[in-house]
Amino acid sequence: MTLSRDPGSACAIGVMAKAPQAGRSKTRLCPPLLPAQASRLSAAFLRDVTENIAGAASVAPIMGYIAYAPEGTESLFAEHIAEGTGLLLADGSPLLPPNVQGFGRCLLHAILTMLALGHPAAVVLNSDSPTLPTAILARTAQLLAMPGDRVVLGPAEDGGYYLLGVKAPHAHLFADIAWSTDTVAAATRDRAAALGLDIVELPVWYDVDDHNSLLRLVHETASLKGARGPAPFYPASATAAVLADIGLHVPSLDRAAE
């Protein structure tokens, strides 16, 4: 299926990301990872997430972007993203409502930019869920293409969200949010209700941002070895390759192989 590259007919999905750099990327995974290993894994995540978006674009009208910060790091993404992925600055620098602070400024900046490009809907997506099922991304675009204003929310297991999609720049969705806490998704639901917006929730998924979730990712990617039939999640081949090269193991899997 060949889709139009006209922004006016495609849902924009912007991956909130920083360029892979040792000592600056995935620092919450150090330890068990070394800084250089965390940077390699960050680059693999970006490759898999943007390739996943490209796959979703084969079944739904989607255009993918990297919504990055800080300014001046654009060239550092070149080797790590799917062909056709755009770049847009999302550092929260424009004049925004004073009650939108912290990471919310970056999210709102990304949404404003994607809508200004002419997209009928804009989605912000995290860069920490490389195995997110492709069908979820396609479903998001389909939901946002339906008539009427709404919010599409992808809640994360930790109480945040991995995805938020909108059709208009509702700044109140990002106002007075305690970012990086387990109340983010709940607060976002409250903001949507206050605006009178319908909210459609996607399946819960997880972020890879600590030791336990990293081991879960290792287990998930390793479980595909020798498996037959379609996987229940995106296979994240770049991520799997880096994890295998680093040599991370899940003890339960090691014992099963003995």
Tell me about this structure.
The chain is an alpha/beta fold. The protein has a single domain (7-209), classed as Spore Coat Polysaccharide Biosynthesis Protein SpsA, Chain A (Alpha-Beta Complex), CATH 3.90.550. 34% of the residues lie in helices and 15% in strands. It contains 7 helices and 7 strands; from the N terminus they run βαββαβαββαβααα. The protein has helices at 35-56, 103-116, 134-145, 184-194, 211-222, 237-246, 251-257; strands spanning 11-17, 62-68, 86-89, 122-125, 150-155, 161-166, 198-201. It has a 7-stranded mixed β-sheet with strand order 3-2-1-4-6-5-7, sandwiched between helices. The longest helix is centred in the N-terminal third of the chain and has 22 residues, at 35-56.
Low-pLDDT segments: 252-258
User: What is the CATH topology assignment?
Assistant: Spore Coat Polysaccharide Biosynthesis Protein SpsA, Chain A
Query: Average pLDDT, to the nearest integer?
Result: 91
Largest sheet data? 7 strands, mixed
Helix-strand makeup class: alpha/beta
Helix coverage percent? 25-40%
**Termini separation (Å)?**
46 Å
Percentage of β-strand residues:
5-15%
Number of domains: 1
CATH top-level class? Alpha Beta
Order of helices and strands: EHEEHEHEEHEHHH
Continuous helix count: 7
CATH homolog superfamily: Spore Coat Polysaccharide Biosynthesis Protein SpsA, Chain A
Shape: globular
Radius of gyration: 18 Å
User: How many β-strand stretches?
Assistant: 7
Any guess at the CATH architecture? Alpha-Beta Complex
Question: What is the strand arrangement across the widest sheet?
Answer: 3-2-1-4-6-5-7
